[in-house]
Amino acid sequence: MKILADIHTHTVASGHAYSTLDENLRYAAEIGLEMMAMTDHAPALRNTTSATYFANLGILPETLHGVRLLKGVELNIINPSGEIDLPVEFLEKMDIALASLHIPTFPPATRAENTSAYLKAMENPLVDIIGHPGDPRYDVDYKEVFRVAKETGTLLEFNNASLVPGGFRQGGDAIILEIMKMAMEDGIPVVVGSDAHFYTSIGNVSYVETMMKSIGFPEELVLNTNPELLLASLKRRKCK
Predict the structure, then answer these.
(1) DSSP tag of 40
(2) Percent helix / strand / coil, the chain, rounded to 5
(3) Are the beta carbons of 211 and 176 closer than 8 angstroms?
């Protein structure tokens, strides 16, 4: 599978990543990516960005080192009502937005509350992608999440970092495989992301690719293989 776009990457601004934006884009160019999204963590996560960081994204170039840059964010879903931690006026100016559950900003709650957090977040027209669903620390009704993702046009991410052996989302393989099978069965396009926190992980979705191959997941359903189709599939573009 030829991945041409990485939709989930972090820079030093995220507070626990170790490469600059320039380093990330240089490496993306080296490995043949055409597009890369910068999705640093939003402010509710401690020791990360401030709102000002996202207010200033306009100074960044559209293309650097021959790679198109999508200016984005990994939002934190902060409660069962699906609220996220950046206001509309910031999100409207971005190219892409993921929304994820993170322990420091939303500790695992009941199955109903965890599921509601995802469902309500997906109702937001500026939330394009649910980041790393399948975290085993959260009890979630993923059949319902998948149903509402289809209904709202929200993309689901298969996250490579979630499948790294010994990682902190250890044990989520079966959940991720279940979601993958649902997408394959219904012919629903998905995205894959490296969740890179160091430049050498940019574009690396090897663990996700191995899982996809094990079930014969169709390459044409992976939007990262077609950057223009990926852009056209983002909810924020379809809603305009």
Answers:
(1) P
(2) 40, 15, 45
(3) yes
Q: 122-160 burial, b if ≥16 CB within 10 A, otherwise e?
A: bebbbbbbbbbbbbbebebebeebbebbeeebbbbbbbb
Q: Would strands 63-64 and 67-76 be described as parallel, antiparallel, or unpaired?
A: antiparallel
Mean pLDDT across the stretch 56-68? 97
Would the pTM count as exceeding 0.90? yes
Look up residue 100 and give its two tokens. Answer: 């994820």
Q: Amino acid identity, residue 73?
A: V
Residues linked to residue 38 through DSSP beta bridges, in sequence order: 71
27, 213 Cβ separation under 8 angstroms? no
Q: Which two tokens stand for residue 197?
A: 């926190």
Alpha helices in 123-158 (DSSP H): 142-152
Task: Give 85-88's long-range contacts (Cβ < 8 A, gap of 24+).
Answer: 85/42, 85/43, 85/44, 86/42, 86/43, 86/51, 86/54, 87/51, 88/126
Residue 161 has pLDDT above 90, yes or no: yes
Give 108: exposed, middle or buried? Use CB within 10 Å, 0-12, 13-18, 19+. Answer: middle
H or E segment and range at residue 36: strand 35-38
Q: Which of 151, 101, 110, 111 is nearest to 131 (CA)?
A: 101
Domain boundaries 5-238, corresponding CATH code: 3.20.20.140
- Say which residue the tokens 């993306």 belong to: 28
Strand partners, 37: 70
pLDDT, residue 169, reads 82
